[in-house]
Structures are given as C-alpha cells and as structure tokens.
Design goal:
The chain contains 2 helices and 3 strands, in the order αβββα. The protein is 54% helix and 18% strand. It has a 3-stranded antiparallel β-sheet. Strand 1 and strand 2 form a beta hairpin. With 101 residues, it is of the alpha+beta class. 15% of the residues are buried.
Length: 101
C-alpha cells in the first residue's frame, strides 16, 4: 500500500471524526425516574444539559431519595444516548469496541 494513500485516508478519518464530534453535541436524550418526576437531559458527549425536578420530589426530609432519583434519571439518559449513538454511527464505527458504547 502506498504511504501517501494511507496519509490521505488518515486525513479523511480525522475529518469524519471531527464532524462526528460536532454532531454529538447536537444529539440529545432525556432520561427519567420516579414516574417522570425527575428528568435529566444529556448530549452525545455525555454532558448534562438540563435537570428538571417536579416540586413533588423536593422534600427536605428525604434528600437521599432525590439524589437517588437524579442518579437513576442520569443512568436512563446515558442508556438512551448510547443507543442513539450506536444507531446513528454504528456503521461508521464498523465494529470498533469503544468503551461506554
């Protein structure tokens, strides 16, 4: 294989990766818990974009429950965004084993 062709392919892959990284910022998923009283929205880079709490779940006597609900909603959102990334970029990843996906 010609080394210059390899360099050209590497540059194309870098450009594709850069494009995917930009698209991941726009991809979002919302996870919920507690019957939808806690909602966490994350983007494709796994950054939390928003947290919405129903006033029903804000009980100063039970902060532990609220913490657990937030964690559960975040886990739900993570699962959904991972599935969305697999669905959208699965063919591009071509069987690569990427941690977290």
């Amino acid at each position: 294989m010609n080394p210059f062709d390899m360099l050209k392919n590497i540059q194309q892959m870098k450009d594709q990766l850069r494009s995917v990284q930009e698209e991941l910022k726009e991809l979002t998923a919302t996870g919920s818990s507690g019957g939808n009283i806690v909602n966490v929205t994350i983007n494709g880079k796994f950054e939390i974009i928003s947290v919405r709490l129903d006033p029903l779940c804000v009980d100063p006597r039970d902060v532990t429950m609220l913490q657990d609900l937030i964690i559960a909603a975040h886990h739900d959102a993570m699962s959904k965004i991972q599935e969305a990334i697999k669905a959208k970029y699965g063919p591009l990843l071509n069987g690569m084993n990427i941690p977290g996906l």
